[in-house]
Amino acid sequence: MSVFSSHSRRHFLNRAALGFGSIALQSLLMRELNAKPGPGFGHYDHSAKAKNIIWLFMRGGVSHMESFDPKPALNRYAGKTIEETPFKEVQSPERLKKVRVVVVNDANGQQRNKLYPLQTGFNRYGQSGMEISDWFPYMGSCADDLAVVRSMWTTDDNHGAQVQFHSGRHMLDGRHPTIGAWVTYGLGSLNENLPQFVTMGPRFFDTRDGHYLGPAYDAVPLHLDKEQPLDFAQPEHAITAKRQQEEFALSHRLNQLRRLSFPSDSQLEARIQSYELAYRMQRSVPDLLNLDREPAFIRTLYGLDEEHTRPFGRQLLAARRMVERGVRFIQIMHGDGAAGAWDAHSGLKANHQKLAGQVDQPIAGLIQDLKQRGLLKETIVVFATEFGRTPGSQNSDGRDHHPYGFSVCLAGGGIRGGTIHGQTDEIGFHAVEHPHYVTDIHATLLHQLGLNPHRMEVAQHKRLEQDFGHIIHPILS
Amino acid sequence: MIVLGLSLCLFSARGQAVQSYLETIKPLLRERCYACHGSLKQKAGLRLDTVELIQSQNRDTPILDFDHPEQSLLLKRLRSTDLEERMPPEGKPVEASILSVIEDWIAQGAPAPPDEAPEASPSDHWAFRPPRTPDALIGGEHPIDELINGFHTSMQLTPTQQAPPLLLMRRLYLDLVGYLPRQDEIQEYLNDPSEPHYLAVVDRLLASPAHGERWGRHWMDIWRYSDWFGLGDQLRYSQKHIWHWRDWIIESLNLDKGYDLMILEMLAADELYPTDEDRLRANGFLARNYFLFNRTTWLDKTIEHTSRAFLGLTMQCSKCHDHKYDPITAEDYYRFRAILEPHQIRTDTVSGEMDLEKNGIPRAFDMHPEAKTYLHRRGNEKDVDTTQNILPGPPTFLGDIPFDIQPVKLPPEAVFPALRGHVLETLLNQAALRLASIEQSRQELAPESNPLLDLEWEAASKHGPALRAIHAAMHYRATQPDGPEQGTVDQHAAKASLAYDIAQIKWELATKQEALARAEKDKQEPLVKAIKALEEAQQARQLAYTDNPHHFVALRASIKALESPAETATERAAAYPRDSTGRRTALAKWLVHQDNPLTARVAVNHIWSRHFGMPIVDPPTDFGRRTPAPALQDVLDYLATFLTQHSWKMKPLHRLIVTSQAYRRSSSSLETMEDNTSKDPENHWLWRQHPKRMESQVIRDSLLHLGGLLDTKIGGPSLPADQTHARRSLYFRHSRDDQERFLTLFDDASILECYRRSESIIPQQALALSNSQLSMDAAKAISKGLLTRHDKRAMSDAWFVEQAFVQLLGWSPTEQERTLCEESLKHWRGTAEQEDQSITPEASLIHTLINHNDFVTIR
Question: What would you measure as the largest C-alpha separation in chain B, in angstroms?
């Protein structure tokens, strides 16, 4: 798709009656009407390696040392304070200063000095021999598709870091568009019947995405567990499908007649189109979410047979169906509660074992399923969390928030599988080799989608260099 | 590129150099250098905004060295790899290709374009000078039209005709009261659309209480109204009962209180009207910015949104460094912060309710007059410059406007909220009620069988006297500090309060003992414990009195919002200061001072923006140097002066605006499209009205009003956002966690900032209008209303279609539209028996029109 200049797009809109072919109708209209077409819109700087993103976000903070970044030193020095180990300089004030505290004097978000041994074992997987914890055996079986970045860092020591991971900005700096919004902004939709940016699962600190880009870039929430998965997607009152269709047809005809009096009214044109999209969405969503049509072995693959894996598995299976239908960005949040379920300040072993059990099989199932359908090539699956957890213990059997070093993994869409990139120090405290701020993940995704992060900027909202991030080239094939 | 190519052929090498200066070098300097080396600032004494100024510098190394261009100081600094040396110090280095253009230009002798003018002085910026008085208006014409028509004449624009009466009424209703008119409400005007009738409608709507609700919501957008939210029960943002501020906004607008007075009350009612509970509600403006976790963030938000909303200045830029475009220094930022530094938030009880969870007025007060303000280096709150205590003041560049701080001595009722008359009254009432209910129980039961009741009566009867005595002692202390009778009144209070407390404990003890006597063995333990605790409490209470026979627990009737999660209960209970610094009063008076060039302009721009769908100054929050003088500056200035001359009252201004022809024009560009759209495609000069989309609240309120379903009760606590009700939409709880799902889809106000609403068009809006219970209920009610109102004999499908169009869309259907709709009605009537019996054909037609583009459009 080539770039439309603002004028030619408007012109195009004015003339277009019906039928946009495969053009990004919703986004096209939105950009036009919000009068904020940015330089990023539809602009491919190079050929894209990926088309879709499935963004899995573990809310609360997954322990990096007990998932993708094993630290045997913790076992060796278990029970010792950091001061007593050879690693005491990790706590030098200079190295701790990048954190910006929101909740002063909070019981959480503190340094924890007494090293806590690993609560699970590790195994090597695949040809790459990647080490993955025993809590994630299914993901282990996909090791050769995974790239793990072990050197992430962020600056918020509390769960506002969830906002930060999505927007690149600390929560005290206001709300900024999220990565999903930027992707939506940068690319058109691949589908005329569905929204291009969907979110499932619990959100808390921020329920919007577009912010200054406008609500057209907010994710459309889908609730798989509710009778109405999409707000107002089905009539709340008794009406037959036939009557509804007739009403729709009449208002459509009337709107078209109105266009004779207001030939240059792009809003009117857009509204006509939005009604068509709505009508199609209404029909497409039930089909999209009808997982019963999936064969038994697929349902098993995603863990739909087991109670503990079913909720997340259903969301991931729905995500795959969305990818097939061209939804661009599917955001799935895992872990209930305000802080997020992974927030294991105590009882970490039981907590992580249980939660990993809920997500591990479905994620591996998703990767395998995408692969067998040839979709993994063009879909990036991201497994992320707002921060890691402290090497030291909290409340005797838990770990506290840890923004200085943690892990994220990615698969598909031109990501080089079997890659481990970056590292933390011996006790998993600081990201010491190739440290990456959270926006580096954004930059990498945008790059794979064929977008230049630096073009993601609109008038009056200057972005900082840090907002754009840096592409993590070593994890790309 | 073609233009450049031509010019290359046309000019000499020198000409080319001038060209590259203008096209490449000067834009670079403007973008990256002027902020520090221009009219705003001259770091190192250097200005770069004209070639002459660049050359006028005498340095050891010439800034421009024509013989050895690469030796020029300008280039050396731009090329330096030493980050301490390199210019500009922030951002990426200048690209090599541009550096070579500069070098070539210097080699050519750095030629300047003729008559190159330096940047204007910052204080010459249009918005920093007083509003212009337009050349004497000739009169005879509406002043707004006289000003705008002048532009039309000179630009040869042909303005559109006045909008048809029905559309005009629709527009006026939506603008002034926020919902669509029913036919009967505007019939008089439609029968005779004369000027007097138009004016009568305008005046009627401005006088309607619904006007305050409509415009109240606008100002709630601008002032960031949000109900409280946090985590579970923990309040983190805003305050409980903040709706009192919303009600104050509505009432103030309906009373046509001046905007100046509104600012004074919002920022400083606690200093100016410390005992006036109605006005104290205005402090909600400050209370809304409350943030539990971080005082700096809390104050930053207050500063940012006070300056943007009232001054149209982006002060937040200068939190970290001097402003790049406006003459606001980092120190100015912290001077502004110092104004707010002492203030905290508390909630005082209201008459009749002592439970602050249930009701109360969140308000501001100065808790820490001694608090110092320090500059945060580069905006880093961990890097504080404690060498200099920054004193309160407004931005220095507006320093000619008086900013006069007068400390305020607060009356006792403000310092001790329990001394307010209604507190004792409420408490005594509660005590009397309890006594009365015991009396009643006594009469109903035989007295001798109820020793417990006797004990309770004993206690209750002592409560009133104790309250009176405590109140008297507090009152004495507050009104006669160190008065001679203090010891006596304190003793009296201590004694009365002891008597009550002991009687109360005795009664509770007896109650438990009686329960113990009746309890089965396994239920006894907790009772035994409770009895023991009460016995200890009784002893302790007695001891406390013996230790200090002057001691009693003072009445409070107020609670301070936690200053941070770390604040202890004792710190939180500290007495309120008897004085207020007067800083916020000084700020408010400075804002509304007649010499302040910004406040009135910013206000009228907010108002204009909502009448015309487009502000005169865009963005409405930046009147700084990045925003050039607007096309309609004369109109803006005229309105600003008009506002201040009318005691800052908004209703006269609304009236002035909606009675102009500019306001009443058709928004259709059909008739004059060719001509005007080429000259003024964006309609900056208002040759027509801008069409707008209804805001979320207006859509819902209109549906309810047209259906006759709207509950017009005004004010009161916010209503849950997840329940249906028929009140106006601004009464829903509105916070991060409370967003009404229908309103949300139509670009509801963001609580973070909303100086203008977005007008998105997304498919979920279509789903909401076609599938919501709300729209179907409204469709049925509207259809029923139309059918009952009509004359039975005249009833026909043609009549109904006509009425439906007029009512919902504001125009009569064309022949084609009428035919289509009649056919549908006929069709639905034929099928109605088999299906959809609950939806009449007429209701279906109304429902269809609710989903017509022109229902949500304000033409």
Answer: 120
Strand, helix or coil at A318? Answer: helix
Beta bridge partners of A420: A148
Q: How far apart are the first and last CA of chain B?
A: 42
Question: SS3 letters for B335-393?
Answer: HHHHHHCCEEEEEECECCECCCCCCCEEEEEECCCCCCCCEEHHHCCCCEECCCCCCCC
Best of B688, B771, B805, B808 to disrupt the A interface by mutation (most A CBs within 10 Å)? B771
Q: What is the dihedral of CA A134, A136, A138, A143, to 10 degrees?
A: -90
pLDDT tens-place string over residues B331-369: 999 999 999 999 999 999 999 999 999 999 999 999 999
Residue type, B805: F
Lowest mean pLDDT among A24-28, B261-265, B502-506, B821-825: A24-28
Q: Using one digit for the tens of pLDDT, what is the confidence trace for A321-333? A: 999 998 999 999 9
Q: Identify whether the C-beta of residue A179 lies closer than 8 Å to the C-beta of residue A56.
A: no
Q: What is the pLDDT of residue B207?
A: 98
Reference B514, options B531, B535, B538, B494; nearest CA is: B531
* Domain residue extents for chain B: 2-119, 238-416+563-588, 424-556, 770-858
Q: What sections of B1-142 are H helices per DSSP?
A: 2-10, 13-20, 26-32, 51-55, 73-79, 96-107
Tell me the nearest-neighbour CA distance from B622 into chain A, angstroms.
Answer: 11
Residue A8 pLDDT grade (very low, low, confident, very high; cuts 50, 70, 90) = very low
Are A200 and A321 within 8 A, CB to CB?
Answer: no
What residue of A is the nearest CA neighbor of B304?
A: A174
Given a contact cutoff of 8 angstroms between Cβ atoms, the answer to whether B473 and B505 are in contact is: no
Of chain B residues 656-715, which have a CB less than 8 A from chain A? 668-670, 673, 677, 691, 693
What does the alpha-carbon distance between residue A4 and residue A9 come to, in Å, rounded to a whole number? Answer: 5
| Residues 780-839 (B) with a CB less than 8 A from some CB of A | 814, 816-817, 820-821, 824, 827-828, 835-836, 838-839
B566 in contact with chain A, both atoms CB, cutoff 8 A: yes
Rounded to a whole number of angstroms, the distance from the CA of A421 to the nearest CA of chain B is: 27
Q: Are A218 and B744 in contact (CB under 8 A)?
A: no
Looking at the complex, report in whole angstroms how far the Cα of residue A172 sits from the nearest Cα belonging to chain B: 7
Q: Does A268 touch chain B (CB under 8 A)?
A: yes
Q: How far is CA B797 from CA B371, B605, B706, B804, in A?
A: 74, 46, 20, 10
Is B765 at the interface with chain A, CB within 8 A? yes
SS3 A429: coil
Which one is the CATH code of A41-229+293-475: 3.30.1490, 3.40.720, 3.40.50, 3.30.1370? 3.40.720
If phi > 0 it is left, if psi is from -120 to 50 it is alpha, else beta; for residue A212 that is alpha
Per the listing, tokens 């004030």 go with A93
For chain A, what are the domain ranges? 41-229+293-475
Closest CA in chain A for residue B626: A460
Contact at 8 Å (CB) between A451 and A44?
yes
Tell me the chain B residues in contact with residue A208 when contact means C-beta distances shorter than 8 Å: 750
Query: Which of A250, A268, A284, A327 is best to mutate for the B interface (most B CBs within 10 A)?
Result: A250
Residue among A103, A105, A243 whose CB faces B839 most closely: A243
Record the pTM: 0.86
Structure token digits, residue B819: 């035919």
Give the tokens for residue A348.
């970490």
Distance from CA of B385 to the nearest CA of A (A): 18
Pairing of strands A197-200, B558-560: unpaired
Q: Do the Cβ atoms of B342 and B583 come closer than 8 Å?
A: yes
Q: Is A251 on the interface with B (CB under 8 A)?
A: yes
